[in-house]
Amino acid sequence: MTTIISPQQFSPVEDAENIKKACQGWGTDEKAIISILGHRNLFQRKLVRLAFQEIYHQDLLQQLKCELSGNLERAISLWTLDPADRDAVLANETLQKSDPDYRVIIEIACIRSPEDLLAVKRAYKFRYKHSLEEDLASSTTADIRKLLVGVTSAYRYDGDEFDETVAQSEASTLHQEIHGKAFNNEEVIRILSTRSQAQLNATFNIYKDIYGHSITKGFPGGDYFSTLRTVIRCIRDPKKYFAKVLRSAINMEETNEDALSRVIVTRAEKDLKDIKELYLKRNNISVDEAVAREWSGDYKTFILALLGADQN
């Protein structure tokens, strides 16, 4: 969604020099940094980072961490990272918390493509010297562990084809094991962690046709079912899921900058336009207006730049 400078106007060396200039003197010129990095695509940001390293023998990310702070520093740093490395950082950060937000892990495992998920796991291992699955298993217990390690370990088929007979059979299995008397998490986890998105959506649709309601309706309480619900929502309709995360981040009594930054930064070069349209339809206010209303300062300026709502 961010407004990108045209290749004809783009100079990574000039950008690197202007960022360095913004970091010199008595105070950091945050607006100058935002005006550059907030309007560069993934390929351009890579070139700027390379140019900065070549000219100043410094990592641009380390320079930004020294010069910026708070929500702005976090958002710009995430934006500057390569997507796989960014997801690895997000996953590790949430697993280090005393109360991890498993939505972060589920988004990476269930919404990223199989190749993207594989790249994240490679980046995680390179950065932290152990596997994402290992850290995830150490941070979770019981059925939540089985479910999250299962979906994170998956390498799913990524095509549109599905088997309707399998979908009908597994819709029945899911109903029996989630809502029936004979409850067994193993089959639920097997289905959700091995089937493709197309196959699972066929199963969810047949489930609704047979039983008259969505699979998540009437879920019992508890952490496991909350986690299971998030897995299903991410697989079933990622854009709708992200629109809800944004609404929650913006409308909570205490706004959630971590969730806002995560969604905007990770979806800005993917499907943010569709998520914004869905948000507007469901909330009668645009994401841009909601952000402008709830936040201020340089953080707001940067988020609005990624939303394509600034005037630069």
TrEMBL record:
* Cellular component terms per the entry's GO annotation: cytoplasm; plasma membrane
Listed PROSITE patterns: ANNEXIN_2
Name the domain of life.
Eukaryota
Source species, please? Gossypium aridum (American cotton)
Q: Tell me the keywords, alphabetical order.
A: Annexin, Calcium, Calcium/phospholipid-binding, Metal-binding, Repeat
Recorded hits in InterPro entries, A to Z, give: Annexin, Annexin_repeat, Annexin_sf, AnnexinD_plant
Query: What's a BP term from Gene Ontology annotated to this protein?
Result: response to water deprivation
Q: Name one Pfam family in it.
A: Annexin
> Residues that bind Ca(2+), according to the entry?
25, 27, 67, 250, 292, 294
Q: Which GO terms describe its molecular function?
A: calcium ion binding; calcium-dependent phospholipid binding; phosphatidylserine binding
Q: Give the protein name, as stated in the record.
A: Annexin
